[in-house]
Write a structure and sequence with these properties.
The protein is α+β, with helices and mostly antiparallel strands and about 800 residues long. It has 3 domains: about 1-10 and about 175-320, no CATH class; about 30-165; about 520-820, no CATH class. The protein is built from 29 helices and 9 strands. Strands 1-2-3-5-4 form a 5-stranded antiparallel β-sheet. Strands 6-7 form a two-stranded antiparallel ribbon. A two-stranded antiparallel ribbon has the order 8-9. A hairpin with a 2-residue loop joins strand 2 and strand 3 (about 70-80). Helix 14 (about 440-465) runs antiparallel to helix 15 and helix 22 (about 675-700) runs antiparallel to helix 24 (about 725-740). The termini are far apart. Mean pLDDT is about 75; it is low at about 325-380, about 495, about 500-505, about 510-555, about 780-800 and about 815-820. Keywords: Nucleus, Transcription, Transcription regulation. One of its GO terms (molecular function) is zinc ion binding. It comes from Aspergillus awamori. InterPro entries: DHMBA_Reg_Transcription_Factor, Kinase-like_dom_sf, Zn2Cys6_DnaBD. This is Protein kinase domain-containing protein.
């Protein structure tokens, strides 16, 4: 660096570089940094950077939740800087003495990451044009009251609030062509020299290089050097595409005072630093081109083979003029369908006389406001929210009879932001279901990536719920994440069934002391959500529970109050039946408990309202069923119900009653001739009725047109149409009981396994395929035991049963106008 005696630092730094206009305006020394709006209610969440381990003395990035209308939304990120003390600066001066007189305080101020970052954003705000500010994350101000959220060792940390950049289309910046930043064909020729790239790939990497240089030079023209140019500072670690140039903690922002160090080196002119940082960009993009990472990304996301991708990439590029079409945006907020699908914020339509529109009107389409999802839709990935509503939401036609399933989700979706965690959770389940249905690995991979990214922010939301009352949104996200694991789990993993973690999250939310999810009594709502897991008795006998008509006669006991007693009985009976030393007295006590519950089951079934009774809409001979190609066809009556909720509750009654009868029959066998034969015969007959009633309900759950079902079977021309995925979801556990309970004849066990496999293959519910691989057990002991099954050694019953919790929790959600009736 040539620096003649007496030359100012300004002249040295900007030698052979255009002097910026803002230097003469005197703005470079301003230090009135903007503060994060102190009027907003906000709180810190967990780490937003999963790749950065948390350690004292390191920069941390955490989610920043801002309160709107009583709900905290993940709106920004807080970048938290550790304290840089004068002691740190003194040690640095000892390692590298300054060539110019510098005090310890001056060195501290220069090397402190926090003011470094602040100076960059202050310069961008003051001197960068509005069209160029999108090259960098938006700055929302300095957070001043950080200490109340951090423990004492971190009390002196500082933080700034920044734009929340996500690996989504809504965070990407699209830069128009700009000849000013063109670097000719030098880099393009270098790429072509590799010999392994297609013309399209050469153009892609050249464009990537040009866009990055454009961002970097904009920074340099502001008198800022980045100081830490890396590939991951142009894009998020989990994203393939560039978003913004960020992380300015090692940067230098010009001031007239010569610095102690400049980007870890001795002070030198901007032109030298700019050349070095541009060389770093070139090297990083060229390294990506050598690794063919674009090709690898296309293979992963599209799911095609290398050869197919290569054939597409080598197609000749032809230039042609494209007509610019500007579509008028739906003015309704926040449910503009195009904005919803693209993940951007819809600001409505703003008139502009300079725009010219083609005469084309797009019909308004707001899938989240559908009252009754249609029976079938064209399979598409463009509207995952609409697809989910179509496949899983059951809106109650009469709240006095049915609760439906996820009934309140459409109205809840209409009130949240299109990029909210709730919408993302819905998309995850939709993509996983569709990926299973049409064998699209790319959709499954997409769902898994979004699921992994959502887990961190959901943990933050749960943390908020621990500090305050749980929210409906948190409950629904927990349900949806659990449903995703049920949908995606067609093979067992080392972590077993991952939906169990979300089951426990649902339970924790509903059983929280601060939970607003109460019934009309002091009984916690989720006590009655799953008969197989909840072991406490109901505190109030007339509690209406979940598994009954919401406005049913209070004189009729709800099913929950009976089911709640079954799980401890099943566990106790299982232990005794496996113990050869169990006494006759102990067995008799267990038998008496089971008889009391059996009486309650028999009375409940006889007292149900006529609206809950099954309607016989057809009859199938066993010969016709066996001659058809439909795997779920079975000889006997075909049942229909008021809706899928009623069918699911009735099957829950049947399969749990069946398990109880199996206990009674096996206890009677163990106790010898002390049990009257006519009692055992009665139990066997009742079990037979329950088994065939479940079988008769299968077509109602699995076909999309029950009235045409029998005609389709008899015609032999085409199989019945596939029903909505919610039918298969609600039928999983009853079929699982049929396939494993020893009281069920082996032919029906095999039939149930075929139905489970069909649900997995055609309805997109992966756990159906998983359950179908279980070898039917020979006794109830292996069924209710927590030990693995013999046929599929890593599928414990307990974890499979816990999936039922998510289903019953989904029945709790109702639109606001219906919640007063519950």
């Amino acid at each position: 660096m040539s620096n003649t005696h007496g030359q100012s630092w300004t002249d040295t730094f900007f030698s052979e570089w255009p002097l910026p206009d803002w230097i003469n305006e005197g703005r470079e020394d301003k230090t009135d940094f903007r503060l994060f709006d102190p009027q907003k209610k906000w709180m810190l969440g967990r780490s937003a950077d999963t790749g950065r381990y948390s350690e004292f003395g390191r920069i941390q990035v955490k989610w920043l939740y801002v309160r709107h209308g009583g709900i905290y939304y993940r709106q920004h990120v807080a970048k938290i800087f550790p304290e840089y003390t004068e002691r740190d600066a003194e040690m640095q001066l000892r390692r590298l003495p300054s060539r110019i007189p510098k005090t310890v305080k001056e060195v501290r101020d220069e090397l402190d990451w926090f003011p470094n970052e602040l100076r960059v954003f202050h310069r961008i705000d003051a001197s960068c044009t509005s069209s160029q500010r999108i090259y960098f994350p938006e700055f929302h101000g300095v957070i001043t009251d950080l200490e109340k959220y951090l423990s004492s060792p971190y009390a002196k940390h500082r933080a700034i609030a920044l734009e929340c950049i996500r690996p989504k289309l809504s965070s990407r910046r699209i830069l128009a062509a700009d000849k000013e930043h063109s670097h000719g064909d030098k880099f393009k020729d270098k790429l072509s020299g590799l010999g392994s790239l297609s013309d399209f790939e050469v153009d892609y990497y050249d464009s990537l290089f040009t866009d990055r240089i454009r961002r970097l030079l904009t920074l340099h023209r502001l008198g800022i050097t980045h100081g830490d140019i890396k590939d991951e500072h142009f894009r998020l670690p989990m994203d393939f595409f560039d978003t913004v140039l960020y992380d300015f903690s090692h940067s230098y922002t010009f001031s007239p005072v010569k610095p102690y160090l400049l980007s870890f080196s001795l002070p030198r002119p901007l032109k030298n630093i700019s050349k070095y940082e541009q060389t770093m960009v070139e090297s990083q993009v060229f390294e990506r081109a050598e690794k063919l990472d674009l090709r690898e990304h296309l293979v992963e996301t599209i799911g095609a083979t290398q050869s197919v991708i290569m054939d597409a990439l080598i197609q000749p590029l032809q230039e042609e003029l494209l007509e610019l079409i500007i579509l008028r945006c739906d003015e309704g907020l926040p449910a503009c369908s195009r904005c919803l699908q693209s993940g951007r914020i819809c600001l409505g339509y703003r008139s502009n006389d300079e725009l010219r529109f083609r005469h084309y009107v797009v019909p308004a389409n707001k899938p989240v406001q559908l009252l009754f999802p249609p029976q079938s839709r064209i399979v598409t990935t463009n509207d995952p929210v609409g697809l989910f509503l179509d496949q899983y939401v059951v809106c109650s036609r009469d709240s006095r009879v049915s609760r439906g399933f996820l009934d309140g989700l459409p109205s809840l979706l209409a009130s949240v932001h299109p990029s909210s965690d709730l919408v993302r959770a819905v998309e995850i389940v939709a993509w996983a279901t569709l990926g299973n249905k049409i064998s699209r690995p790319d959709l499954l991979a997409r769902a898994r990536r979004q699921y992994t990214g959502l887990l961190c922010s959901f943990q933050d939301l749960l943390h908020c719920c621990q500090l305050r009352a749980p929210t409906v949104e948190a409950l629904v996200i927990a349900i949806l994440l659990g449903l995703y694991e049920i949908v995606s789990s067609d093979e067992i993993t080392q972590e077993q069934q991952k939906h169990v973690a979300h089951v426990r999250g649902v339970c924790a939310l509903l059983l929280s002391p601060n939970s607003p999810f109460d019934l009309l009594s002091s009984t916690q709502l989720f006590q009655v959500a799953n008969p197989l897991l909840i072991k406490r008795d109901l505190q109030v006998q007339d509690n209406r529970g979940v598994l009954c008509a919401p406005a049913s006669n209070h004189a009729v006991h709800n099913l929950d109050s009976i089911l709640i007693k079954c799980h401890p009985l099943f566990e106790h009976a299982n232990t005794q039946l496996q113990d050869p030393l169990a006494s006759f007295y102990e067995l008799q006590k267990t038998l008496d408990r089971a008889l009391a519950i059996e009486l309650a089951f028999s009375q409940w079934g006889a007292t149900q309202d006529v609206s809950w009774k099954a309607d016989i809409v057809g009859f199938m001979s066993q010969q016709d069923a066996e001659a058809s190609s439909c795997p779920f066809a079975w000889g006997g009556p075909v049942h229909a119900y008021f809706d899928i909720y009623v069918a699911a509750v009735m099957n829950t009654y049947r399969k749990t009653y069946l398990m109880l009868l199996d206990v009674l029959i096996r206890l009677a066998s163990r106790m010898g001739g002390t049990i009257r034969t006519d009692n055992v015969t009665r139990w066997e007959k009742q079990a037979h009725i329950l088994i065939y009633d479940i079988v008769a309900s299968i077509p109602y759950h699995l076909t999309n047109n029950l009235h045409a079902y029998q005609q389709d079977i008899l015609s032999l021309n085409s199989p019945p149409g596939v029903g909505r995925s919610v039918g298969g979801l609600l039928l999983l556990h009853p079929l699982f009981v049929l396939s494993t309970c020893s009281a069920v004849p082996r032919p029906i066990q095999n039939h149930a396994l075929k139905c489970l496999a069909w649900i997995g293959q055609h309805m997109g519910i992966g756990q159906g395929m998983l359950m179908s691989k279980v070898v039917p057990s020979l006794s109830l002991c292996s069924y209710v035991s927590k030990m693995p099954f013999q046929g599929y050694s890593n599928l414990p019953f307990q974890e499979t049963a816990e999936g039922h919790v998510l289903i019953w929790a989904g029945m709790l959600l109702h639109p606001a106008e219906k919640r007063t009736q519950l």
